[in-house]
Amino acid sequence: MTIRSKLTLSYLLLFLVVLAIGAAAFWASGRWRSAAAELSRAYNQGIAAERLRADIYRQISSGSDFLSGDREAEADFWDIQKRVAGQMGKLKAAAKSEEETDHLEALEETQRELVYVAQNVFRPSGAGMRNPKERPAEKLEEIGDEVTSDVAVLNQYYQGLENVALAAAAGSGNLIAYLVGGAALLALVQLVATVFLLQHWLAGPIAEVGQVTTKISQGNFEARVAIGSRDEWGELAGAINRMAEALKGYEQKLRAQERLAALGELASFATHNIRNPLASIRAASQVMLAENADQPAIKDSLSDIIQSVDKLDMWIQRLLGFAKPLDLQPTKTELPQLVYEALGLHEALLESKRISRAIRLEPLPPILADPVLLEQVLSALIVNAAEAMETGGTLTIEASAGSREAILRVTDTGKGISPAFIEKVFKPFVTDKPGGTGLGLAQAKKILDLHGGSIKVESTSGAGTTVTLTLPLFWEEG
């Protein structure tokens, strides 16, 4: 997962948590407001009930005053009755439960009974009607007690509503407090997580990359970034490691070129200071050989001198050829055709040693190579393979195509190369063959490096050797 994806996921998780806390806080706030509204309503209903009881008591007092002879008390009674009716209507309209409505209707029924008694007190007439003067004062007192009882029950009901609302408001307040505390804790956790993740995702890899690039800049091309994650840092580490590997290869090539340059100077010295005297020695020996052709002892000695001089001259020529800078002239080349041409050059050698050939060349795209130099490499490999095998044996040449390179394998069934020597096969002048110069494989590697290819030797002592070449395929532009 990339760092961008990790950051996006962490931000999404944080957003969801904050959204959940916000939703819970909004719900708790709504619950708190509802409890506050219910508390306010219960309080106002209780106050209205108390006012209603006070007015009813005033009506009872007006009735008592009327019985005591105050005739104006009747008018006060009916004025208060209008206010009582209005208050009763508001209370019933604000009622929210059947229980509250029942309590109000009980109080309303008591107040109706008061009106009925008052009507008989103010207008004592009519057949069959009870005489209000018999016990009106007691009846008014009895109604007063009923009003007190009804209002007390109603207030008790409202007090219960207030307690419930207070409990709900307290619960909502506690929930909001918990949410605030949780949000603070979440912010702290987020801070710690951010510091940790920044250290893990950014600071640590930056330090690692900085240390390794410093080592590379100081010439340590063996340094590698040890980051194996599959994110941007992993891609950057891979790029830096590939860069270090490429720089290491360039350094090796540069050192090889420096060695070749030094070898070239040595060859130039040999040309001017060794070959000329050798030529003089050879010419003098030939003259003396002609003059002493009838003396076998002198003739044999002079012939040995001439052969030694020729051998030294051959060594110097090969040394010059190896040290000489190669003039690469790449062109579109068919590798199978080049293989068959190289085999043709050494057909006599292979036939003389009765070596059978197994040639398996798949159809290949062309390669971009210098055919002259590449034929030199193939000739060296074929000769090496033939020399490694005694009479008989099989030379196998296989070619196939990789994703972007041609692969050529040359295998013999000879004696193989010892494990101790195989590490040195590409070093100049190192050979395990009597009379060998040790320049064949060194020159082959030099040519392959110049083409941007590679050469590898695998061998099992007593079972044969396989040399594998890779060369870049030729791709038409566009």
Structural descriptors:
478 residues, alpha+beta, five-stranded mixed beta sheet, two-stranded antiparallel ribbon, 11 helices, 70% helix, rod-shaped
Can you offer a commentary on this structure?
70% of the residues lie in helices and 9% in strands. With 478 residues, it is α+β, with helices and mostly antiparallel strands. The strands form 2 sheets. A 5-stranded mixed sheet has the order 2-4-5-7-6, with helices on one face. It has a two-stranded antiparallel sheet with strand order 1-3. Strand 4 (394-401) and strand 5 form a beta hairpin. Helix 1 (3-67) packs antiparallel against helix 4 and helix 3 (98-122) packs antiparallel against helix 4. It is rod-shaped, with a radius of gyration of 58 Å. Mean pLDDT is 84; it is low at 126-130.
Shape: rod-shaped
Order of helices and strands: HHHHHHEHHEEHEEHHEE
SS elements, strand count: 7
Rg (C-alpha, Å): 58 Å
Helix content: 55-70%
Strand content: 5-15%
Tally of DSSP helical segments: 11
Oligomer: single chain
Main sheet? 5 strands, mixed
Distance between the termini: 35 Å
- Give the integer mean of the pLDDT values: 84
Structural class, from secondary structure content?
Answer: alpha+beta
Poorly predicted runs of 5 or more residues: 126-130
Strands in their spatial order, largest beta sheet: 2-4-5-7-6
Blueprint (SSEs and pairs):
Layout: H1 3-67, H2 73-94, H3 98-122, H4 136-217, H5 232-291, H6 296-323, E1 331-333, H7 335-345, H8 347-352, E2 356-361, E3 367-369, H9 371-388, E4 394-401, E5 405-412, H10 419-422, H11 440-451, E6 454-460, E7 464-472
Parallel strand pairs: 2-4
Antiparallel strand pairs: 1-3, 4-5, 5-7, 6-7
Helix pairs in contact: 1-2, 1-3, 1-4, 2-3, 3-4, 4-5, 5-6, 7-9, 9-11
